[in-house]
């Protein structure tokens, strides 16, 4: 991608950010405490305020206002985030991701062993 020794452009920043967010969701507890639920909600809210791409931050903040994070379990959070990501992908003309593959993609590795 060419971002290892240069400032990130919007595309590289977005790729890295979505990777972080999906990985966080993949490792979120199956039965989160109320504190964990509050923390992840606050994280997403703050991301919409401090993200270095102003337009992206504004769009993300609006998305989570209309589709608040679902933080009741790891599966629920991953599904919610995948839906939000797909909404953004649709808007910018990118491929829609199969949300049933979130844990395989960001936590467990592909079943074909290609990540081993």
From TrEMBL:
Molecular function terms from GO: flavin adenine dinucleotide binding; flavin-dependent sulfhydryl oxidase activity
Key word Oxidoreductase present = yes
Q: Which Pfam families match?
A: Evr1_Alr (PF04777)
Ranges where the ERV/ALR sulfhydryl oxidase domain occurs: 6-106
Q: Which UniProt keywords apply?
A: Disulfide bond, FAD, Flavoprotein, Mitochondrion, Oxidoreductase
Question: Superkingdom, according to UniProt?
Answer: Eukaryota
Identify the Gene3D superfamilies for this entry: ERV/ALR sulfhydryl oxidase domain
Q: Which cofactor does it need?
A: FAD
Output the SUPFAM superfamilies linked to this UniProt entry. Answer: FAD-dependent thiol oxidase
| InterPro entries for the chain | ALR/ERV, ERV/ALR_sulphydryl_oxid_sf, ERV/ALR_sulphydryl_oxidase
Task: Give the subcellular location.
Answer: Mitochondrion intermembrane space
EC numbers on record: 1.8.3.2
Q: Which GO terms describe its cellular component?
A: mitochondrial intermembrane space
> What is the reaction catalyzed?
2 R'C(R)SH + O2 = R'C(R)S-S(R)CR' + H2O2
| Parts forming coiled coils | none
Kindly provide the name given to this protein in its UniProt entry. Answer: Sulfhydryl oxidase
Q: The organism's lineage?
A: Eukaryota, Metazoa, Ecdysozoa, Arthropoda, Hexapoda
Q: Which organism is it from?
A: Cinara cedri
């Amino acid at each position: 991608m060419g971002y290892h020794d240069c400032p990130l452009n919007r595309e590289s920043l977005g790729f890295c950010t979505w990777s972080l967010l999906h990985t966080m969701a993949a490792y979120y507890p199956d039965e989160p405490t109320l504190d964990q639920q509050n923390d992840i909600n606050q994280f997403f809210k703050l991301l919409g305020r401090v993200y270095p791409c102003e337009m992206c931050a504004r769009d993300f903040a609006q998305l989570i206002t209309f589709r608040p994070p679902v933080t009741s379990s790891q599966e629920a959070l991953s599904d919610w985030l995948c839906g939000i990501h797909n909404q953004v992908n649709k808007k910018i003309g990118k491929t829609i991701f199969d949300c049933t593959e979130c844990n395989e993609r960001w936590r467990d590795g592909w079943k074909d062993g290609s990540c081993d």
